[in-house]
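Example 3.
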Amino acid sequence: MSTEDRDITPALGTRGGPGRWTAAEPGAPVELARPDFGDAEWSYLYKTGDTDYAGATPAPGLVADANRRMRGAPVSEVNGPFLHAPVWSGMVATYFWFGGIASGSAFVSLACDAAGDHRSAQIARKVALGAVAPAPLLLIADLGRPERFLNMTRIFKPRSPMNTGAWCLIAFSGSGALAVGCDLIGRPTAARSLGALTSLFGSYLGSYTGVLLACTAVPLWSGSRTILGPAFVATATATGAAATRLVLVASGLPDGHPTRTALGTIETGSMLTELAISALGERRLGDAAHALARGRPGLYFRAAKSLVALGISLRLVARRTGPREHELASFMYLAAGLLFRFAWVSAGKASAEDDEVVAAMARDRHGPHDGPARPWQKRALSVRRSPLPVPPALQRAYGEAVRHTSLVIERLVRR
Amino acid sequence: MSTSAPATEIAIHRSGSQRMGFFTDTTVCIGCKACEVACKQWNDLPADGSQTGRGVSYDHTGDLSASSWRHVRFVELLEPSPQLREEAQRALDAGAGGKLPAIPAAGAIDLVDAVQAASVADVAEGMHKLGDWVFMSDVCRHCTNAGCLDACPTGALIRTEHQTVVLQPDVCNGCGYCVPACPFGVVGRDEIDGRAGKCTLCYDRLEDGLEPACAKSCPTDSIQFGPHEELVEIASRRVAQLHARGIEGAYLYGAGDGPEEELAGGLGAFFLLTEPPERYGLPAHADSPVQENVVPATVAAVAAGLLATAGTVAAFAVAARRGRTTRGARTW
């Protein structure tokens, strides 16, 4: 759909076009303009004129006290909407999945090289490149103006996770492609070092997506700011290992080969880690975690957990029956990874629309407040309540430091 | 207290410029929506379609969006629930001792009865609540710590010489990150246009020495435009005057706070309210989510990423050793 598709037919008359007048000479004053925005002069409050409160002088601290009292006052009702829900489609969740597989495979290629299985490492590098290939396409397709995707790279902005993520995706794809290229032209040493570099980029590619979600006002996401990155990286490792394992098996890696064993261990281990981290996050979040338990996101989340459980039990059964069940388990982990991504992304929308939770988190953020608490304030909401009492001045200084550091880097790079 | 942006963040420099802002006084807003219309006309924003389906309210705009940069929020409770109505009836039936529950717009007939039945003080309380219909002309806050500006990956959102936050539509690629990064639910992405949109504090008018369209059109001066410092002073006087008149609930949302209680570092466009912020759909506290979260989240994420790499390498090392010693003993 383009801008032209919007119906802008006026109810009466004909649609206006661009003006036919010629531009005023540069610097010439506009009609009605007065110095110092003096066109606001008609206002009866202009320059604290003859209003009946022009003479009122607030006692020192009166305004600050009133603000503090009312912002901490008991809430009789919560009238939304508070936040705008994220506009990202399923393509972003799918991108998270592909990016995760790519970074997981990059880890595997590094580990294969370290263990001396260079043939598997080569294949893992190809899997990483293949998995990262659809990633930029998915991201571009989700943009409101896809043709402007290169604008992401017009600056380097460390404080914006989406900007650093775009750069990381470019770095990962570049070094991954070079590594595969070196493999193809028979330069194994270069390929291995490039593979290691890809894996280093992968450690951010697989985890920054969690940072991306955490740096929003959505209660569920920002409340699990230290949970999201580790959880996403665990899913990335599991799905990356599963994908590599399936490709290796298809390419004829024999049953019982140490690489296959290691990959199986990694898949199961990281999926169990993911479940543990998620459970920890849900406990910390309190009410905000409802978004992950209810509705469609809840369905995704439960389905993902069931698939992981099924995969693990298949692994245990397959110790006796044979290798085919292992492959089936790997497929299940891959599907579970995709469902986890969809669950987290879609739960963010539900969380942003849950006005009670948004309001409660905003109150809870700065500790206890004056006045009697309403029932919904009394609920255990441990969102971002740090175990150490951090003085507000320090928190503020920290926020300032983040921005100033980013600004310094942004300006340095621009020159 | 520093309620201004760091000089390094300001993208456009002009000597003699100062922080400009809005002071929106909700106590004098009459809900005429002239600001909405003026904003749409000046900024050439498309209509949002008629959403009369909202039904219960005369407020058909509903929310700020990419195509609605001013929105007069109707804070209203027109229909008390049947339970509350019953409770009110019981209070009335109980006679002089019964207290009217605090029902906004409980219905004029009940209150006429109440004048005869209950004591005067209780009726006054009930009458006070009857007029519980508040308007608030909502707009982008032009925060000192702006979440949208921090999140924007393309640099489309910039800080101008007036310390306002302006989106450059020719740069925005519609990634949508500023939408959830705004703690006030201001920025939206237009489905058809594809780009984000929000109030520019009429940057184009300011460049030519004109006040913003909404402030210009406001018939009651509920929206006041001016240098931020002057506005804070005017607003503080207004609060003092309202307190002197007995309206103890009057306070400023986004200005005049102590250094540790500022909303997003101080709001360029702030409000005078008379009810707790949640009634207006405003969070009691807010800050740029990026500045709050980016460092702990990144540290946790990168540490986990490196740990996962190390774990993968370790799993291979263990498997390789086992494979050498007891080959085929344990297979996955």
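Chain B has three domains: 7-77+135-287, 82-131, 288-332. Chain B touches chain A through 133 residues (CB under 8 Å).
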